[in-house]
């Protein structure tokens, strides 16, 4: 295994190109198997989760060709087969195969999801949606077996605003008989991205991005070409790192509107932000105000940017309160930050963060965004080298990390553990 070495204290300066959104890509790839002919995806991020999905689709008989940030998925030879173990256990979002295979074949057997382990992550709302569409769902030795003679449109109210459940139901409903409405749907940009792909394939979906999505089922879907939206979480992480190192960074190829909540919070702290059409410039300042942050569903402040923000808040004077209303225990990175000298205590869903200098230490990433928080923290520490193990978690969400940070002037390198 590798570890990341960071000699911090250097302001990040320059421009970083943001890649396609991970949380779109790992829904768009399974969505493509609903088509009868080839689907081309552009602006694909080069991430391990994307490679795992390539293997999953190949196991199902699709042909998948990769060329840099382009993927062509030809599902014509696709077969429905049980996937109780193996690669499905490597990433949580393998659950999108349930909706896609159910929509295409009326049947799916998929092992219960793996992935980031910061807290139990149920899929009861996904199952509620599949059953509403007329499927029988049984748990067979840790794999979900889902079967429907004929999927029929239904009115589904989500008890919890869930990105995954909203997308999974959309996938299955796209080829059901009749109309499905999803009430209390999640509104993340990645949901709009999946609906855009499905509509380009011939689906009839309206209202994606609002709390009510209407899907009129169609008999079949065809191939198309689709460019993936930029990764707002990757972009936000670089914005936070720019502020934390008092740098001057332009994050390029982004949709500024997707980062509104973060931009507003950074400005509230005293960071100078300049928005252009497809880029955002972040200019760090010597002093920051402490602020309170509430992680909520979109368009609220993103829970995926809660962890990196906790590292920046150690640089603000005074006490900040960071509360996550989406996940109740997404603070596994806090003890690692405390090892770096951070003055943070966790009370329930909140982290109480006091400003103060950090120092270099050996720390470990326990999940993707926790790892990102440690990278931000390491970048702010002058003198000394921060060593981060668990880099494989970070590589799931940040492609070209060392190259991008080095191009911005950081002293970062990988070393075998
Ligand atoms: C997606 O996860 C993202 N992952 C997560 O990003 C992100 O943190 C999360 O949405 C929230 O924005 C992908 O898109 C692959 P949810 P997802 O269903 O869909 C509860 C990252 O770092 N819930 O919106 O799994 C759940 O426990 C990852 O890139 C149920 O109770 O999240 C959570 O508290 C981490 N029952 C809340 O809803 C369900 O059936 C939101 O979860 C489903 C979810």
At a glance:
The chain is of the alpha+beta class and 417 residues long. 30% of the residues lie in helices and 25% in strands.
- Named at the architecture level, the CATH assignment of the largest domain is Alpha-beta prism
What Rg is obtained from the alpha carbons, in whole angstroms?
21 Å
User: CATH top level of the largest domain?
Assistant: Alpha Beta
Low confidence ranges: none
Question: Looking across the biggest beta sheet, what order are the strands in?
Answer: 21-22-1-23
Shape field = elongated
DSSP helix count?
Answer: 13
Biggest sheet character: 4 strands, mixed
Number of domains: 2
As an assembly, this protein is single chain
Structural description of this entry:
The chain has helices at residues 22-31, 48-59, 96-105, 124-132, 163-173, 189-200, 232-244, 260-269, 306-313, 334-339, 368-380, 391-394, 401-407; strands spanning 2-7, 13-17, 39-42, 63-67, 70-74, 107-111, 136-140, 143-147, 155-157, 179-183, 204-206, 212-216, 225-227, 248-252, 272-275, 279-283, 292-295, 319-324, 343-347, 350-354, 362-364, 386-389, 411-416. By secondary structure, it is α+β, with helices and mostly antiparallel strands. It folds into 2 domains: 2-19 and 230-416, Enolpyruvate transferase domain (UDP-n-acetylglucosamine1-carboxyvinyl-transferase, Chain); 22-227, Enolpyruvate transferase domain (UDP-n-acetylglucosamine1-carboxyvinyl-transferase, Chain, Alpha-beta prism), CATH 3.65.10. Strand 19 (343-347) and strand 20 (350-354) form a beta hairpin. Helix 1 (22-31) runs parallel beside helix 6 (189-200) and helix 4 packs parallel to helix 5. It is elongated. The chain starts with a strand and ends with a strand. The mean pLDDT is 96. It binds ligand EPZ. Ligand EPZ binds next to helix 1, helix 4, helix 5 and helix 11. UDP-N-acetyl-alpha-D-glucosamine binds at residues 92, 121-125, 304, 326. It is an enzyme of class 2 (transferase). It catalyses: phosphoenolpyruvate + UDP-N-acetyl-alpha-D-glucosamine = UDP-N-acetyl-3-O-(1-carboxyvinyl)-alpha-D-glucosamine + phosphate. Phosphoenolpyruvate binds at residues 22-23.
